[in-house]
Amino acid sequence: MAKFTIKRVLYSAVILFFVMFIIYILMYNMPAGYLETKARELASRPGATKSYKEWLTDLNAQYGMDKGIVQGYFVWLKSALAGKWGDSWSWTIPVTQEFHNTIWYSFALGLISFILEILIAIPLGITAARHQYGFRDYFTTVVSMICISMPTFFVATLLKYIFSVKLGWFDLTGMQGRNYGNLSDFGKFLDIAKHFVLPAATITIISIGGLMRYTRTNMLEVLNADYIRTARAKGVPEKKVINYHAFRNTLIPLVTTLGGSLPGLFSGALITETLFSLRGIGYASYNSMTAGDIPFTMFYLAFISILTLLGNLISDLLYAVVDPRVRLS
């Protein structure tokens, strides 16, 4: 297992190196207007000690833009590995500080949605497989297809129209109510939690469809296996056949799928957070990208790349844990 893990980690490190190189190439070939605009802004601030040309030279040197792509990439990579990502142009604070200020809101939203997705999708998928071609199966199939087909902005708009505009139960956007400052600590917690209800519902709705279909398909495959027929022929109770024999083997592909979803808890829901104006990492990255904030954009893209590779690594390791044939081969 240790040899298997080391090999997967080395593969991930090599892939990350080239992915970050592609990110740098994209930033390198962006219009120079972003750097010029920032240099002009810094030079025009009250008490500025550098001229426009000096700021432009410093910014180009900071990101290796005054060198070739390859040499500039290694300059940027060296700074990135040392944790020197620079200051965010949009938020006027260090990139890492803005990341720390926003990541935990995204994590809370992602964790709530992830738990709800598991609690809803997996039982419904198993129920659909147990009652194949029955009402429950058709109902689950229709629901999953609807969830898969609906885009995020449509679900978010629909929920806001029903529960905010028509019923008035929740605020349209934001993370705090009007009386937030007058509430107790527990009241503030409940107020923020209330503003997370619709975003969490949005992410859950668009996520459960795929997991339901995946669970149903794998459960059907297991239920049609020979050892399940043998267990039933021996008179094993149906409940034990489903919960002990079938579900345990269905978990093998499900564990790898859910393992790959774990890094998504930290990546932020860019569209959902932006639609509901939640100050998570997704919201911050969207506003940074639209404003041409190169430092934060490069950090966020590198962060997403690391999370993606981490998700694949977790999936590989979990699959090797539940199925020893993988690591032995």
Write a brief caption for the model.
The chain has 329 residues and is mostly helical.
What would you say this structure looks like, in words?
This protein has 329 residues and is mainly α. It folds into 2 domains: 2-79; 100-281, Orthogonal Bundle (MetI-like fold). It has helices spanning 2-28, 33-44, 52-62, 69-81, 95-130, 135-149, 152-166, 185-195, 197-223, 226-233, 238-261, 264-267, 270-276, 281-290, 294-322, 324-328. α6 crosses α9, α9 (197-223) packs across α11 and α14 (281-290) packs across α15 (294-322). It starts with a helix and ends with a helix. The mean pLDDT is 82.
What count of structural domains?
A: 2
Unreliable residue stretches: none
Q: What do we call the CATH topology of the largest domain? A: MetI-like fold
Strand composition percent: under 5%
Can you lay out the helices and strands and say which pair or pack?
Layout: H1 2-28, H2 33-44, H3 52-62, H4 69-81, H5 95-130, H6 135-149, H7 152-166, H8 185-195, H9 197-223, H10 226-233, H11 238-261, H12 264-267, H13 270-276, H14 281-290, H15 294-322, H16 324-328
Features:
2 domains, 329 residues, 77% helix, mainly alpha, MetI-like fold, globular
